[in-house]
Sequence to fold (243 residues):
Amino acid sequence: MKYLNSLLTCATVFIISSCSQSTGFRNVIEHPGKLELIYYGYQLNNPSQYKVIANGKEFFITKSTVVPSVQSVFLLENIAVNDGDEVLDIGTGAGIQAIFAAEKAAKVVATDLNQDAVDDTIYNAKFHDLSHIIDARQGDLFGPVKENEKFDVIIFNIDYPYNEQGKELWEVHERFFREVQNYMKPGATIFYQAGWLWNIPKIVDMIESNNLIINRMVMVNAYKMQRQPIVFTVQRHPNPKTK
Ligand SMILES: C[S@@+](CC[C@H](N)C(=O)[O-])C[C@H]1O[C@@H](n2cnc3c(N)ncnc32)[C@H](O)[C@@H]1O
Fold:
């Protein structure tokens, strides 16, 4: 379907202006965040690759890997990684968060349930000459994390519920908040993408009931969008409740 859409859009652009043989169409995604997001569609010189530029960097996406979205770039805009940090990016997709984090991090572990996403992250890390920093692994949530691995920064942007049908996805998010402290170094920060305004009360509850605290919550006025880019910055509670 993505392929058909790309071809149709490319055909339209071709008639109106000119459609580069090598890059296909160029669709600048308008959104209320600050970072640029441009979809180039499937490459005419390599039809298996869908190309995206996010904040100036190229990403190549194949097969069933999710294309970076407005939520992805809004999360990117609100993540802080310090020099030498060790970072865990859960649900890495095409590796967008992992690759930007690797500009400063000493090590990034990027995990995804989907092997296609892991393969694309490995490809994109190599393209950006960051294979020595990014270790992409397949698996569910913390499953691919090794024993005793702990992180300064944990990035979480996986599929989230935005309607009745998606409710079963909460199980994964609940498990994330229950288990995440096992993988946090002292002072570690979680950057969590919420995706939908109506998810906020449930997310606040999951955070607070797991002895974590919200340091910051930021969202943009996305009145034209069905879903909202929302990022929570979360840390350990300084005075956790004892049972
Ligand atoms: C919406 S995409 C976001 C990709 C990327 N984080 C970004 O910011 O663009 C969600 C990703 O989470 C992955 N995912 C979904 N459930 C997962 C789970 N339980 N464990 C690990 N990855 C998961 C999906 O395969 C998909 O690649």
Observations:
- The pocket of S-adenosylmethionine is lined by residues 66, 68, 72, 75, 90-93, 96-97, 111-114, 117, 140-141, 157-159, 172 (CB under 6 Å).
- Confidence is low (pLDDT under 50) at residues 1-22.
